[in-house]
């Protein structure tokens, strides 16, 4: 992993110098759409770019510093295409108010050629409940703040920002001041569930202190949100691979937290039951979760620190035929022991066994096993604050290699000893922060297991049993009596 | 020799012995399997969970032991129990159970089997029940033979009387104690039979283990001396007895004093004095034997009389003096309650309030032991036939345990093993008699007449019944009637022995003729045993396998519906309250709160401090204004009550409420009076006609707070007490409802902090609800707590 960050560092030092001789692009239009949500906010920014110099191949995008901190996932694509473009971040510089990243365009643009780029980001912990407390009968309102202008090192023809809520119930939004020089009519309009800022015309290159000081300002939307704001404070997933059992066991330990407005007063069961009866459940209470687990799983278990939780339903989808990917999921309706109201926590363990053949292949040429391990099972609308994934490989696995879809904060290799082990199994551990549904990708691990290692386990067990029998045989034949006993 | 059915010929004795040995091993293995399997109903029907109340403490303690090691556990001071007093756990528990699980846990982990400590705790009792079956087998083998032993093992393996305390999840001291009891008795018998100091020492070591594991060790402490005393009084003193008893007592007592909870009790309390006395007596008797072998008998007579009289007088005086001086503690209340069943109710309501301390109802004898209870007397009678030393032991054990089982439901457990042993002896004697293929030879010539007459007058069972009807047969059922006399008609001797040794010993050969009688008896016995098995299975699955933490009901479609309110509420406490929030509840739930919610409690099931419990009782049974200072002084943040009125869960706090009142009354007779909680007609009511004291009590208010509103204007029905609750429910000024579980079984209230403006909480609440304060009678200002 180190070489990659080194390269970042290197490019970070060199790239600004390369980009300096005048802008090679201009933005004809920038449209930013913010899907206001709970703990995850989805921001899509479309850049319509035009090359002002021939052969321009690297486009630079900019994010506000605060925005950069909130952003947990970021991807740039050419509009209409699936493949994400390669992205190189500049080193973080806290003295500046923005963060830059270079996008490598698929091919160099000719002069005046245009291209639409789509930047998708997921922001976590970007909303705050306001008011901070809500009683059981009250609604849940959230506040979201962002910067008015999308920063760009290039000149922008027209720029819009749309804040979209799920319902038309937007309580208030900021009306920006000091933007007369860019606008023709109202600086912000609200229509239904959407608040539109702009269009703002003719914005100069904005990645400089002068512009930011003069025009950049926070805008805030205050809106009702009808789903609970969920956070997974801690997720510990352990995946255990067993070739003998043809089994991939996945066990998640989750600490669920309702990050919505905390409950004012106390929980009244009477209130809760009558709300459920009249089908007007409190928007910040979470009665149940629906999770999508892999197909073909078995032995699913759901328990917490005090034992099994019997209030869940599972519909298992059949496993996909060999060599194919199934797009069906086993659906788990999971009900916590109690409804999770604002500010409440609930921790639980969820695990299942999946056939290893669904996610592992053996490469005869190299003699390696390749196993796909999903990093997380997404909980709808929730952000995972901290995650730790550990992959326990079979005993005796050697030459362990892995390829992660995105870099982990930290990863390490240790030894894990469990049932019937003699030397222990290699265990890979990855640590992450602020994972979202977009991070629900897989790590591919490949390793070799020599035949001798496969046979160690049965051998050790048979030796253990054999020695017990031998011991028994020997003790039966030892006579320790001093006197000859009378025959009984 | 005529046989009733053909026997295989040309079998070498070695083959027979080996086959028998193999069958014994296989049978024991199967019995162990059955014993374990029948205890798993709870795990299969529910889950691998710790049951009831006390096991939750044991489980919690075991987790401390497993996580922090033995020394930490030994010195464990638990500040969260009995808040604010705390509890020295290491010195107030019998650590045997936790140590056992800890050892198993560490052992398994050492060989890379990382079994969860909870599963070890859950499965400990079934595991040890298999060992109990083995110990009972060994014990009964000493009484009669291996076949009786196998029967006894099978009985104890599945008898409900023992299963009731050893199902999977019932992680209590009894789980290992019954094994230790039987094993100690077995080694004691073995030591006595052989005069072996080795077996005496093993008995002492297992006795030590027993002392470390269960308070009921006092039963052994008194049974063995009693046996020894009876042997001496019957003139059966021998050096074997001397060796066995001395080695057991000396080592066992010293070892037992190593358990901190026991400490110096073996030399200081009355319960242990019998063992010491018999030890002393044995020394004297042994010395007397020695003297007698050296001097003439006349001198010895005089010496004996003088010696016995003076030593007896001196010993009694010393005992009285020591008790009087307080060096020996007098009998405890629990001890008295064993002799007078009304004693506890009068003087120690806290003991009487426990259901398992009630006298046994007679149906539970049948429920727990089924046909064994009928065979039991027959087996005891059979013990009299031979009356070896070990038979005396069983007879004494049977008598003592029968009495105790009648006094306390819980002590049924100590009766069960001896019932199994004696029943096995009886049944095996019966089967020996009737399966034995050898028929009595019809003697020719002179004896032909008498032989013929015997034949005619003894047609099978009827003849057997007519030979020796005993007193027991009158009491026993029809089936047992057949069993007992038939068994007793053969004086503990095997027919084969009789006929093998001498063809005609008596003038009338006795025995069973023909195959029909044999088949009939064996078939009947098999039937009885089959019924026994099905009875045990039924009782176990329906009565003894409920974890009581989780309740089961049935959906309309017949599927099982789990009512999980307790864990719901406990888990809510655990996840959503500050870690140091003190939870007050009635003592029954103390261990569960500590175990599942992991929060400090005021009182728990270790009922060592009556005053503290009475304080909780007082808070629960007095009005809000009176209770509030008590709550605040004890830092109570949450109060938890159990309320079954909505779904009809009868074990709730309103039904236990009178015990709270009684216990509080015991300490504050001026403030709490039981009659105030009844209607003038003397009824216990919760409806409109409930007494004012009842309606104002904290318990009543917390149970029924907003309950009537649930019925939306219709009269609310309390389904436990079958009464209509008042339409206008109680209001709370000093408490807030914090959580109520799905079926309203557990209700948790938060105690409000003092009003920031210094007002009385009642008037503050009235102000908040916009009520006008009455000018005429200003609300009293509550004084600040110092």
Automatic annotation (TrEMBL), chain A:
Pathway the protein takes part in: Protein modification; protein glycosylation
Gene Ontology CC, one term: oligosaccharyltransferase complex
Signal peptide: 1-19
Domain of life: Eukaryota
Predominant subcellular localization, coarse grouping: endoplasmic reticulum
Any Pfam family hit: Ribophorin_I
Keyword Protein biosynthesis belongs to the record: no
InterPro entries found in the cross-reference section: Ribophorin_I
Protein localization: Endoplasmic reticulum membrane
Function: Subunit of the oligosaccharyl transferase (OST) complex that catalyzes the initial transfer of a defined glycan (Glc(3)Man(9)GlcNAc(2) in eukaryotes) from the lipid carrier dolichol-pyrophosphate to an asparagine residue within an Asn-X-Ser/Thr consensus motif in nascent polypeptide chains, the first step in protein N-glycosylation. N-glycosylation occurs cotranslationally and the complex associates with the Sec61 complex at the channel-forming translocon complex that mediates protein translocation across the endoplasmic reticulum (ER). All subunits are required for a maximal enzyme activity.
Known partners and oligomeric status: Component of the oligosaccharyltransferase (OST) complex.
Protein known as: Dolichyl-diphosphooligosaccharide--protein glycosyltransferase subunit 1
Gene source species: Asterophora parasitica
From TrEMBL, chain B:
Keyword Metal-binding listed: yes
Membrane-related topology note: Multi-pass membrane protein
Cellular compartments per GO CC: oligosaccharyltransferase complex
Transmembrane segments annotated in the record for this chain: 21-44, 88-108, 120-140, 146-163, 175-191, 241-261, 273-291, 303-324, 365-384, 391-413
Enzyme class: transferase
Organism superkingdom: Eukaryota
Protein name, per record: Dolichyl-diphosphooligosaccharide--protein glycosyltransferase subunit STT3
The species this protein was found in: Asterophora parasitica
Lineage, uppermost ranks: Eukaryota, Fungi, Dikarya, Basidiomycota, Agaricomycotina
């Amino acid at each position: 992993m180190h070489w990659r960050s080194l390269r970042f560092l290197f490019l970070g030092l060199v790239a600004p110098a390369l980009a300096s001789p005048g802008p090679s692009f201009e933005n004809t239009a920038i449209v930013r759409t913010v899907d206001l949500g709970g703990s995850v906010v989805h921001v899509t920014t479309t850049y319509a770019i035009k090359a002002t110099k021939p052969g321009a191949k690297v486009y630079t995008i900019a994010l506000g510093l605060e925005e950069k901190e909130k952003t947990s996932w970021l991807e740039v694509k050419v509009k209409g295409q699936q493949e994400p473009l390669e992205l190189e971040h500049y080193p973080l510089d806290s003295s500046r108010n923005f963060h830059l990243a270079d996008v490598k365009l698929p091919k160099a643009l000719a002069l005046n050629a245009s291209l639409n780029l789509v930047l998708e980001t997921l922001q976590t912990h970007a909303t705050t409940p306001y008011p901070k407390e809500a009683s059981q009968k009250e609604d849940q309102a959230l506040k979201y703040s962002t910067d008015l202008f999308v920063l760009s090192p290039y000149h922008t023809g027209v720029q819009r920002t749309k804040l979209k809520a799920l319902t038309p119930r937007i309580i208030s939004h900021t009306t920006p001041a000091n933007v007369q020089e860019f606008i023709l009519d109202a600086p912000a309009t609200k229509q239904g569930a959407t608040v539109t800022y702009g269009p703002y015309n003719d914005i100069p290159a904005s990645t400089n202190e002068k512009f930011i000081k003069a025009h950049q300002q926070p805008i805030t939307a205050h809106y009702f949100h009808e789903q609970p704001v969920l956070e997974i404070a801690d997720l510990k997933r352990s995946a255990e691979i067993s070739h003998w059992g043809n089994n991939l066991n996945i066990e998640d330990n989750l600490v669920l937290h309702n990050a919505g407005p905390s409950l004012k007063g106390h929980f009244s069961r009477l209130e809760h039951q009558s709300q459920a009866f009249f089908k007007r459940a409190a928007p910040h209470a979470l009665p149940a979760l629906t999770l999508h687990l892999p197909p073909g799983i078995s032995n699913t278990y759901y328990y917490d620190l005090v034992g099994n939780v019997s209030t869940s339903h599972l519909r298992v989808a059949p496993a996909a035929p060999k060599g194919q990917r199934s797009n069906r999921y086993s659906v788990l309706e999971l009900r916590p022991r109690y409804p999770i109201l604002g500010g409440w926590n609930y921790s639980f363990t969820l695990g299942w066994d999946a056939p290893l053949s669904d996610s592992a292949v053996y490469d005869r040429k190299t003699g390696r096993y390749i196993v796909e391990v999903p990093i997380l099972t997404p909980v709808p609308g929730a952000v995972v604050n901290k995650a730790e994934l550990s992959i326990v490989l079979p005993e005796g696995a050697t030459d362990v290699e892995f390829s992660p879809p995105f870099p982990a904060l930290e990863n390490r290799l240790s030894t894990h000893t469990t049932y019937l082990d003699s030397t222990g199994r290699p265990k890979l551990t990855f640590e992450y922060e602020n994972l979202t549904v977009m991070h629900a990708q897989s790590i591919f691990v490949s390793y070799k297991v020599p035949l001798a290692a496969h046979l160690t386990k049965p051998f050790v067990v048979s030796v253990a049993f054999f020695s017990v029998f031998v011991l028994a045989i020997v003790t039966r034949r030892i006579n320790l009596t001093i006197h000859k006993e009378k025959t009984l | 020799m005529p046989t009733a059915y053909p026997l295989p010929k040309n079998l070498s004795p070695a083959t027979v012995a080996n086959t028998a040995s193999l069958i014994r091993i296989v049978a024991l293995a199967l019995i162990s399997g059955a014993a374990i399997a029948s205890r798993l109903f709870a795990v299969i029907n529910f889950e691998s969970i710790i049951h009831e109340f006390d096991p939750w403490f044991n489980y919690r303690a075991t987790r401390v032991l497993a996580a922090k090691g033995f020394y930490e556990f030994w010195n464990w001071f638990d500040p969260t129990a009995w808040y604010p007093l705390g509890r020295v756990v290491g010195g107030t528990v019998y650590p045997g159970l936790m140590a056992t699980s800890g050892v198993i846990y560490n052992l398994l982990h050492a060989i890379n089997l990382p079994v969860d400590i909870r599963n070890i705790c859950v499965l400990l009792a079934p595991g040890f029940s298999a060992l109990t079956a083995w110990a009972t087998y060994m014990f009964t083998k000493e009484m009669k033979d291996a076949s009786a032993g196998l029967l006894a093992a099978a009985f104890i393996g599945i008898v409900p009387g023992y299963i009731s305390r050893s199902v999977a999840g019932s992680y209590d001291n009894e789980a290992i104690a019954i094994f230790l009891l039987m094993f100690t008795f077995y080694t004691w018998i073995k030591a006595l039979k052989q005069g072996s100091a080795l077996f005496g020492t093993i008995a002492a070591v297992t006795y030590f283990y027993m002392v470390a594991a269960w308070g009921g060790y006092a039963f052994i402490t008194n049974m063995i001396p009693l046996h020894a005393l009876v042997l001496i009084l019957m003139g059966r003193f021998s050096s074997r007895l001397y060796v066995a008893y001395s080695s057991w007592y000396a080592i066992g007592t010293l070892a037992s004093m190593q358990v901190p909870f026991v400490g110096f009790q073996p030399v200081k309390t009355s319960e242990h004095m019998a063992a010491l006395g018999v030890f002393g007596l044995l020394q004297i008797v042994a010395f007397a034997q020695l003297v007698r072998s050296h001097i003439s008998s006349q001198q010895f007579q005089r010496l004996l009389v003088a010696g016995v009289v003076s030593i007896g007088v001196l010993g009694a005086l010393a005992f009285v003096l020591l008790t009087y001086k307080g060096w020996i503690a007098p009998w405890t209340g629990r001890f008295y309650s064993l002799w007078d069943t009304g004693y506890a109710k009068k003087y120690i309501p806290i003991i009487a309030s426990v259901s398992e301390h009630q006298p046994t109802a007679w149906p539970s004898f049948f429920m727990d032991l089924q046909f064994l209870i009928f065979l039991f007397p027959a087996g005891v009678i059979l013990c009299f036939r031979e009356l070896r030393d070990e038979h005396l032991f069983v007879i004494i054990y049977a008598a003592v345990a029968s009495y105790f089982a009648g006094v306390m439901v819980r002590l049924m457990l100590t009766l069960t093993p001896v019932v199994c042993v004696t029943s096995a002896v009886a049944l095996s004697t019966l089967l020996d008699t009737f399966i034995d293929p050898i028929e009595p030879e019809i003697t020719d010539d002179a004896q032909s007449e008498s032989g013929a007459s015997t034949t005619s007058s003894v047609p099978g069972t009827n003849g057997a019944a007519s030979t020796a009807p005993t007193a027991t047969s009158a009491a026993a059922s029809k089936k047992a009637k057949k069993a007992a006399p038939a068994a007793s008609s053969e004086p503990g001797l095997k027919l084969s022995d009789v006929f093998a040794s001498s063809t005609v010993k008596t003038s009338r050969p006795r025995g069973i003729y023909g195959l029909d009688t044999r088949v009939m008896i064996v078939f009947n016995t098999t039937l009885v045993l089959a019924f026994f098995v099905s009875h045990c299975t039924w009782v176990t699955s329906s009565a003894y396998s409920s974890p009581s933490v989780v309740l089961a009901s049935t959906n309309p479609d017949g599927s099982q519906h789990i009512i999980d309110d307790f864990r719901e509420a406990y888990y809510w406490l655990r996840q959503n309250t500050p870690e140091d929030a003190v939870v007050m509840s009635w003592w029954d739930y103390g261990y569960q709160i500590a175990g599942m919610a992991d929060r400090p409690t005021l009182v728990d099931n270790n009922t060592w401090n009556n005053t503290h419990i009475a304080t909780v009782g007082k808070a629960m049974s007095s009005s809000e204004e009176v209770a509030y200072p008590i709550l605040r002084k004890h830092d109570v943040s949450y109060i938890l009550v159990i309320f079954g009125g909505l779904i009809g869960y009868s074990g709730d706090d309103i039904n236990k409420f009178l015990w709270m009142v009684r216990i509080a009354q015991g300490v504050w007779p001026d403030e709490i009076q039981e009659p105030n909680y009844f209607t003038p007609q003397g009824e216990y009511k919760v409806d409109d006609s409930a007494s004012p004291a009842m309606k104002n009590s904290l318990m009543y208010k917390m149970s029924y707070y907003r309950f009537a509103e649930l019925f939306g204007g219709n009269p609310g029905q309390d389904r436990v007490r079958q009464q209509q609750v008042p339409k206008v429910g109680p209001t709370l000024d000093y408490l807030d409802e914090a959580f109520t579980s799905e079926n309203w079984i557990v209700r948790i209230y938060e105690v409000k902090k003092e009003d920031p403006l210094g007002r009385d909480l009642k008037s503050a609440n009235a102000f908040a609800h916009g009520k006008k304060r009455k000018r005429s009678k200003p609300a009293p200002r509550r004084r600040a707590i110092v």
